[in-house]
Structure formats: structure tokens, C-alpha cells
Amino acid sequence: MPGPAGRYRIGSVAIGVVLSTSFGLLVSGADLGQFFQGLWNSSLGEPAGLENMLTVAAGLLLLGLAAAIPLRIGLWNIGGDGQLFLGAWGAFAMGQLFPDMNSALLIPLMLVAGAICGAIWTIIPALARVYLNVNEIISTLLFNFIAASWVLYWAGSKWGEQASAGSVKSENIPSQTILESIPVGSYLIPIGFVIAVVFSAVVWLFLRGSVFGYEMSIIGSSPKAATYAGMPTKRVMIAVFALGGVAAGIAGVLEMLTNVQRFGPALSNNTGYTGVVVAVLAGGFGPELLVMAIVFAGIAIAGNILTITGAPGELVFAMYGLTLICAAIGQGLRHLKIVNPGPAERDAPAGVAAEGAQ
Asked: What is the radius of gyration, based on Cα positions, of the chain?
């Protein structure tokens, strides 16, 4: 059974999902029966729907992890999108260098390259935060725009084809690197989702049982106490950023190898920012993170169904925001305590009650 904080979080997110869905239905004017039928078919009712939902959840899980790890010590990684793009860039570069390599070697090589590139992309913001006290929210956010320009340069000229105005994409990845889904009964489980869950579980277990994880918890509670105790605070902060970048870089590789199968801006639809929301609502990087990733994948699918009926494309982000607001209200309410005054306090004059309170 979850504790009081967990119950508030679950309840507030559930209310947020209901309100955001109702808001979407109101804005779009969609038929209620058709909406829920489409949502069922696009999630759990059909093999293709479940495969699509878990593919979306895999990216949200890893990008949520990329934000949740720094949050453990009070730092914000808003640069998930940039780290995702750089991870995909490193993986695509391996595919260009070794296009004929066996998939059993090339796919792990691409994953490692993506993880390294994602980590490297966090180094400058991490060093700026640790040694110059530059706000990491601003620096990681600005690095997203640098990464977006980097993507346009490589996908639009060096590696790619420009199919039409406003559509920049690279050529296809090597065919042997496409990750197929795993058949489980009549359903298909994306191998990218399996990799994301396994990687997240390994990180969670490592941080729960290692000295590094213990140092993270102490630094998150009191950086001054950790420094006084002789812990390598600055080194841990840099490593935390790098580990978040590894998770986001792997997310970019998996998105490219499973869904998009090219390198370009289509790899992310502001997924990194959604990952921050997932991390905040999960309140950590345990199993709750997986649950929130699946919930927000469902919200994304619901929003996409509503856009088919003519609703604006920004509706999905409005639904995300409404869910986050409800969760924030729930988090605030759990700190409030309703006090029921006794009969003597209720009957006392206002002045006497005020003196008693003093």
C-alpha cells in the first residue's frame, strides 16, 4: 500500500487525467463512444495499438529517468531533447561508418555511441553548474536549441535528403539495425521498451545499493553536510548529469532504431520536456516512473485521437499541463492539515482565542 504522499500523488494524477481528457473532448467536440473505442484500439485492444503505446512509453521512461536522476540531488536536467538528438547522431554515425557490420555487433555499438554522446552533451552544463554556479535549467534548456541546429545541419546536408520544404530527414538507417518487436501471444512487445525497462531497472538497483547512490542521497539531503563529511560532491554532481545524458542518449537511439528509422527532427516531439513532467509526477526513479511513462503515453495517444477529429495539435501539451497542475495541487494539499477546534475554542471570544494562539 502506498503511503500518504503516494496516495495523494496517485489521486491527483488520476483526477488530472480525467479532467484533461474531458477538456480534450470538450475542445474537439468528438463523439464520446468513438473516442473511447479509438483509445481502446490504439492502446490495449489491438496488437498494433499496444505496440505503439509501449514504443511511446519507452522514450518517456528513459527521458523521465534522465530528469529524475539529477532531481535526486536537487538539480534539473531540462536538456533531454538535446541529449536525445546527440545520442541518435552518434548512433547514426556508427551506422554510416560501418554500414555492412553484423547487427549483433552494430546495434550494441550504436547504443554505446548514443550513450556516450548523450553524456558528453551534458558535460558543459554540468561543469558550468558545478564550478561557475550557472543555473542548470537555463544551460540545459539552451543546449536543446543548439542540438536542434546540429540536427538540421547533419540531417539536411551531410547525411540526408530533403524531401520537401520543412521536412528535413536523413537517409534510412542500415536495414539490419531495425529493432523488431517481440511476439508475446497475439501481441507485439517493442524490444525498445524491453531495453528501456531493463536499463532503468539496472540504474535503479545500482543507485539503491551502491556507495555512489548513498552519496547521491546525502548530497540531495544536505550538500554542506556531504562536503563536510568529505564526499566528492562536485564529482558526484557531474556524474549524475552524465548518467542522465546516457539515459536520454539511449532513448534517441531506440527511437531511431524502432520507430523513425532515420535521423532528423522527427525523433522528438518535445519528448524531453514531457520526460521532466513524468519525473516530477513519479517523485523518483523507481517503479512509479514506469507507471507515469505509460500513463503519459496513453494521454499522448488520446490527444492524437482527438486531433484526428479536428482539434488543434497543441491539445496534447494542454492535456499534459492540466494533469501537471492537478498533481501540483495534490502535492500542495498533502502538506495541509485540517484542524478541528474543540468546543472551548469555538465558544471563546475572538480576542481571547488570539491571545491563546500567541
From this structure: 23
